[in-house]
Amino acid sequence: MRDIRNIAVIAHVDHGKTTLVDELLKQSGTFSSHQNVEERVMDSNAIEKERGITILAKNTAIDYEGVRINIIDTPGHADFGGEVERVLKMVDSVLLLVDAQEGVMPQTKFVVKKALSLGHRPIVVINKIDKPGGDPDRVVDEVFDLFAQMDATEEQLDFPVVYAAARDGYAKLALSDENKDLTPLFQTILNEVPKPEGNDENGLQLQVFTLDYDNFIGKIGIARIFNGTISMGETVVLVKADGEKIKGRVSKLIGFKGMERFDIKQAGTGDIVAVAGFETIDVGDSLCDPNNPMPLDPMHIEEPTLSVTFAVNDSPLAGTEGKFVTSNKINERLAAEMNTNIAMNYEQYGEGKFKVNGRGELQICILAENMRREGFEFCIGRPEVITKVEDGVKMEPFEHLVIDLPDEHSGAIIEKLGKRKANMTNMVPMGEGYTRLEFEIPARGLIGIRTEFLTETKGEGVMNHSFLEFRPYSGVVESRKYGALVSMENGEAVGYSIFNLQDRGIMFVKPQDKVYVGMVIGQHAKDNDLDVNPIKGKQQSNVRSSGADEAIKLVPPRSMSLENALEWIEDDELVEVTPKSVRVRKRELDPTVRKRTAKKEKFS
Ligand SMILES: Nc1nc2c(ncn2[C@@H]2O[C@H](COP(=O)(O)OP(=O)(O)OP(=O)(O)O)[C@@H](O)[C@H]2O)c(=O)[nH]1
Ligand SMILES: [Mg+2]
User: Mutate which of 17, 42, 167 to test ligand 1's pocket (most atoms within 8 Å of Cβ)?
Assistant: First the structure.
């Protein structure tokens, strides 16, 4: 059997996972000398590159001193926690990165809980020790306390510690050691990560953790072999999560090294490979020995906490900007997504309406963003938390929220969060005029708070949250304080009208933008909605007063990104998404009907 180690790199967002994988790849000599390697190579898809965050877990492999090390890079953002959960079972240990300055953060807790519960003994990597504000010793203590809180075993509490600066490419076992290279980390991996269990002599047992697609070969399952061997051309049995068994032939077997993928003839126990030939293969499915199929347990991961309705675009501009607009197309696309993304699910309800359930606003935004890039048009509604009933009690998801901000903003933020039913659990000075606040807050209270938070803290605050647990429903939380400026005309916005309207609030549109009756063109400065006319031009008189138009000074509109818009809307509003535009609209476009319903609600 081949000498193999399988590890996942886990951490809170931005603690340096992908950067560390870059260095592991480089320093193991995986890239050839002429290869031009960009930064954070594992963040390979367009949105990951644009945003500088990892969204999907991805695997790579290196050879170090004759040992194959399979490495899975995972995302640190809480919304993609499902990606971490799905890969933890595929590895025999984890590198737990913790920023030497930030220390234990919400998602550190989440990933540690998952890793410990699967029995892993993490290698703790205190990263970014180059930071002047870093305090590696304090952070090691924090990690120890966290493990203890989470009922770690004696063995898990006795975790190996490596100090590193991933970006600068060095690691060391003692802070007093010289800064050289990653050798100490490589050695720790070889010594501390258990070798894979199982045996090549046993019947095949392999489980899929990620899917891929190729136009020529079709659906591809990326999988870990837990027992036996698998060969190109061999006939094996695919066992689905529901127990269904389907015989099939391995039409392609693919191995990994660095960024390369290549055909291989055979692979054995402990390895990670890609397999094609099975049309219906999904995440969590097993491939087994046809003579004695012993499938692995399907994967269990945390349930979704948030839902957003995706609906067919029925605005007056529907179909003018996108390629795919029908309910069927949207349905197909969502189905394809859920095949590969086990942390999400969806259901159709009513004509052309789909409820998409996921872990957070960002996760759902990324799906919507991908869809608009592919040419889809649709509408999405305000995110709602998913509640459930346990022993007759209505329960809702709660989150652990950590905020770092300049001291002087603490008061305002504590008050704001109080109105959103947050309960403060900790407040510590972080030095240099910063304070860390910790809260437990219903997930509902977080919807739509980001922009407000950034405004309140002048962009200097950082907030992070991660799922805690379901708790009894906590009552009404405060929402948007401002009404909407709603267009009462169809046409194109005119500079002159916008100029006259901009005193009433913040505009979302600029001259020549298309508008329609019921479209929200701005935020009203007061708490009520206001119907306005954005297309009215200046009365033309016969005498042209020269230069009059130049006198108009327009305030730049607030640009509504998909995320801003989704955060901003209330229950009676929708976001219209097309490949070219993001518009906010009233659910009910007709002003008369809208007013009648509003009145009814007020008096009911
Ligand atoms: N000072 C310092 N910065 C680092 C170090 N390692 C990584 N960074 C920086 O930290 C930022 C985040 O790095 P990433 O590697 O993308 O972090 P990540 O953990 O993969 O982030 P997600 O995948 O989005 O959770 C980048 O700007 C890196 O350059 C380090 O050792 N020292
Ligand atoms: Mg990353």
Answer: 167
